[in-house]
Amino acid sequence: MKPKRAADDGDLDDFFAAPGPARATSRADDDDEPRRRPGRAQDPDEKEEEPDEAREDEPADEDDEDLGDDLLGADGATPGGRRGRRGSRLKSVIAVLLSIAIIGGGGYLGFQKASQAWTSYRGVDYEGAGDESTSVPVTIREGMTITEIGDTLAADQVVASSRAFVRIANQDERSSSIHAGTYMMRQHMSARAALDLLLDPANLATNLITLREGLRDSEVFAQLSQTTGIPVSDFEAAAADPAALGLPDYAQGDVEGYLFPETYTYDPADTAADVLTKMIDQFKRIATEEDLAGRAAALGRSPHDVVVVASIIEKETTNFDYGPQIAEVFYNRLERNVKLQSDATVIYANNMTGRITTTDEERSVDSPYNTYTREGLPPGAISNPGQEALHSALNPASGDYMYFVAVNPDTGETKFAVTEEEHAANVAEFQAWCQDNADRCGE
């Protein structure tokens, strides 16, 4: 979708005119009359616009006052008290802040964040009913304000900005009757289209299932069966025909690792294959977003290798701030032909749940998934990882760490080491935690 250009703020619009999946239109685009361009000679008979009054064809935006209070002081006033001067100063401040964000934010990521901030400030809007290829579950909680709803929609890229939604909702008295619940929405919807959808209770999604990160296929099938009423055997049969599900070729015919954890809707008429296909399609969308193939190649790995690493990371930590460092350890060990020695893989090989450590007997099990006895990666994933784990596997930290241990599994606090001696000290800290949590630790 190519947007119209706003008639005002032209310099900053040009600054942020980067390619993207969709761009938005400005409130100015909806004006019935074009704004006067800078430098245009004014007819002697033409009256000067009063800057302090809202135009009849452009409703006043209450959020402008809120933003001014935040940036300019409690009274929102600037020297001289004129709205035009205030707006000019505000734009200058924002322009400087956004430039700093780009310089300090790191390349394109900094640019994206700065661009999103400018988009939010201006209250730009998309056009139309949204991207039909997308489906986003949006949950409206009891007691949410219109602004909070707008923030939620903008965060999920349903609308271009929270302010656009707030502006439209404030003009519609029915907005106070939005029902709490989950709605299936599209990305890149106009604020009007998004509000219309939320105002119709018929759009409340009732057939929903949420699958958390890190489940095995057997656990996924059991939950799907319990919710949909489709027998587990139907899901097992559907998984045995990966080509019909659209499974990527690099998955090597195994859906483990590729059933993406997310909230899904299902129709009572859906088959097991229909449900699994939705999950694999979502995996492929996330893989494209993360550039799985390209980044895997840069690491010297196949996409399947990265998914396997991600599935192990998913089970090894609850705090993904440590994810890139855990990935660093695994890749360093693989490059040096050192066994991974991941308890998570042994737990999978022994078909256990609810444990975070293993016994000597369990670590001796004869299985290609036992990374205590086998070098290299397991032949397949040990869980279905989420995006954070996948991102970590694609973006390992750079360093010489060869060991890690979660010294407090409750908080996810993890310590890393280069040498065995350093690691032994960290393990002692973990063992002290185990003494207080014996039911969760092995022998």
From TrEMBL:
Signal peptide: none annotated. Pfam families: YceG (PF02618). Keywords: Cell membrane, Cell wall biogenesis/degradation, Lyase, Membrane, Transmembrane, Transmembrane helix. InterPro entries: MLTG-like (IPR003770). It catalyses: a peptidoglycan chain = a peptidoglycan chain with N-acetyl-1,6-anhydromuramyl-[peptide] at the reducing end + a peptidoglycan chain with N-acetylglucosamine at the non-reducing end. The chain crosses the membrane at residues 92-111. Residues 1-86, 361-385 are annotated as: Disordered. Residues 45-69 have a biased composition (Acidic residues). Residues 33-44 have a biased composition (Basic and acidic residues). GO terms for molecular function: lytic endotransglycosylase activity. The record marks E316 as: Important for catalytic activity. It is a single-pass membrane protein. One of its GO terms (biological process) is peptidoglycan biosynthetic process. Its EC number is 4.2.2.29. It is found in: Cell membrane. Its main location: membrane. GO terms for cellular component: plasma membrane. PANTHER family: ENDOLYTIC MUREIN TRANSGLYCOSYLASE. Functions as a peptidoglycan terminase that cleaves nascent peptidoglycan strands endolytically to terminate their elongation. This is Endolytic murein transglycosylase. The lineage of its organism: Bacteria, Bacillati, Actinomycetota, Actinomycetes, Propionibacteriales.
